[in-house]
Amino acid sequence: MPAAVPIIAVVAAGAVSAAVGGGIIGALAAAGAAIVVSAIGRSVLPAPKPRLPALNLAAPGAGRTQSLRQPITEHRIVLGRAKVSGPIVFLHSATDDEGREFGFFHMVVVLAAHRVRAIGEVFLGDKPETDASFAGLVRIERHLGDPDQAADANLLAEIPEKWTAAHRGRGRAYLAVRLKLKNAAFPSGPPNVSAIVDGADTILDPRTGATGWTDNAALCLAWYLTAPFGWKAAWDDIDLPSLIAAANICDELVGTRAGVHERRYTVNGTLSLAEGKIEITRKLVAAMAGALVVSGGRFFIHAGAPALPAATLRGDDLRGDVTIASARPRRDLFNGVRAVYVDPAKNWQPTDAPPLLASNYVAEDGGEAIFRDLEFPLTTSVSTVQRLMKIELERNRRQRSVAFPARLSALRLRPWDGVTVALDRMPSFPARVTGWSLAPEGGVDLALAEEDPAVWDWDAAVDEREAGDSPSVVLPNPGVIAAPASIAVAMPQGVAFAALAVSWDAVGSAYLAGYELEVQPQGNVLWQGFAAGLSATNATLPTSVPTALRVRARSTSGAVSGWRTAGIPALVASPSADGIAGGIRIDGGFPGDAVKLQVFEATSDDLAAAVKLPDEPTALPFDRTGLGTGDERWYWLRSVSAEGNVSGFAGPVTAVAL
């Protein structure tokens, strides 16, 4: 369930702004009601159900990275930074540049219902667009959602009968994707498309007057309140002092277990308009452990932080009998919290936060561990989510609540104000106003909930728990197969050779169908197929010239791995030979892609008669010793790669021993 943070609507003297007058809060306000909307209060004001029952967009992270094709669907809001997909609004196949019918596949994926700051890396399935397997097969155009943006130029040029200048997508951030469908790259057909998006960049910061991108939770909430797809409030309907104070709280730096600092409250995620305004507002408020108060027709935004007492409520402020509940009902108590947040390190998927269980509260509850499950779909920091979890737990354990029938002096108070309750015959305690309404007989009825500054205490060294690795479910995926871990060539020992023997590591996959081996003889530009259905992990290639080899695995679905290559190493550069006492020194530029050299020696300029020396130098210069004065020798050098493949010969060079 979402975190139990309040959205509080209050009527003061019947004044309701135009912003709320037409909405669900406004309807209740007009009836003179004061309500608290929270996860606990769903029975009072339930969140509207998604209109797409087949796709639960209300779950944290659910569907956020999946593109979908439906006749009617809702747009999404992107705030902060998130991995996002969205509805596919256009699909079309066309003949490709090789003349293959349906070889090109076009799709347009809408990422956000508003302008965004940037669209970063795009993913096709689980692979980034820069993956080598997509080379030459993928073209992606990014459109940020400018209100005056033009239609995609490539679609206009290539399929003008389908995509016209009127298809501009104004105010919609989208991707125009063209795939050249090849079975090796797309064995299962067109993949799911998603992208890392820096969200809305039209967010006003009243502290500076600047408009741009931010992940400040309070400013993002104010943006949603004024958005045409949000509450459609005017900026005059938002209390700026409370918004500025909340934005400052969100920007405060808080230490983490890792020894760095992060801002106190941020929002990074995506929201579907199918969730409804109440649920979207609830999630934004939950991300900053605060409250949205509607009072006197104005929105007051508050971020979670200790409250300075705005008043002390005494017996003199009562107009009737006060009711104090000293403990919550057992069904509302919990002493532990389990929460889900979105982890960018785990492909932006919903992830379990380290659970919180308070032993002191477990003891108070008779030794029984009672957990509350919470969701924070707009939180991407494991440190932040733990702070939010602790706040929820500590709030719950401050159990006293007060129904306080106050005199008209309480008109100065608003929900979320801090007060001190100081009544006769009981110790005073701090509380927060959670409900406010005018009484028919005159006066103000207040609902107070106990709270103290310790709720907000945080010591990262003590309170933050190590995240660890959550167990992941691994499902079979025949569309992905690994490349052989290594490839090796049996290094030729003689001047001439008639074949190259190559072997590679077996790929441990239940979906392995076989291997493909390709060759590229020296001087050739193109790779040539040699064997397409090998089941063995070795082969012998008939060749008498240096030849590059590469191998890859193929799965039963037709998917292929990357190539594992044994290339031809470069030649020794500018070889030379000079006589030294009792031998000859051989020098030159040692190739960067070689690990050693083969040195062939002859008594004349005759390569066929040359014999390989037993020494295989790993650097130059190399001294050939053991010769007599006046002995003349001829040398040819051949480079050897780490895989054992060999180059052609560099040389000959000759010298006379001194």
Beta strands, count: 42
Shape: elongated
Radius of gyration: 36 Å
Order of strands, widest sheet: 19-26-27-28-25-20
Largest sheet: 6 strands, mixed
Terminal CA distance: 89 Å
Percentage of residues in DSSP E strands: 35-45%
State the secondary-structure class: mainly beta
Provide mean pLDDT, rounded. Answer: 88
Amount of helix = 10-25%
Tell me what the structure shows:
- With 658 residues, this protein is mostly beta strands.
- Helices cover 11% and strands 36% of the residues.
- It is built from nine helices and 42 strands.
- It has a six-stranded mixed sheet, with no helix packed on it.
- Strand 14 (253-255) and strand 15 (261-263) form a beta hairpin.
- Helix 4 (217-226) runs antiparallel to helix 5 (240-251).
- It is elongated, with a radius of gyration of 36 Å.
- Mean pLDDT is 88; it is low at 1-62.
Question: What does the secondary structure layout of this molecule look like, with pairings?
Answer:
Elements: E1 7-9, H1 18-21, H2 24-30, E2 35-37, E3 76-79, E4 81-84, E5 88-94, E6 104-112, E7 116-124, E8 127-128, E9 138-143, H3 153-158, E10 173-180, E11 193-200, E12 203-205, E13 210-212, H4 217-226, H5 240-251, E14 253-255, E15 261-263, E16 269-272, H6 277-286, E17 291-295, E18 298-302, E19 309-313, E20 323-325, E21 336-343, E22 349-352, E23 356-357, H7 359-364, E24 371-376, H8 382-397, E25 401-406, E26 418-421, E27 429-438, E28 444-450, H9 460-463, E29 487-489, E30 499-504, E31 512-521, E32 528-534, E33 538-542, E34 547-555, E35 564-566, E36 573-580, E37 583-589, E38 596-602, E39 611-612, E40 622-625, E41 632-640, E42 646-656
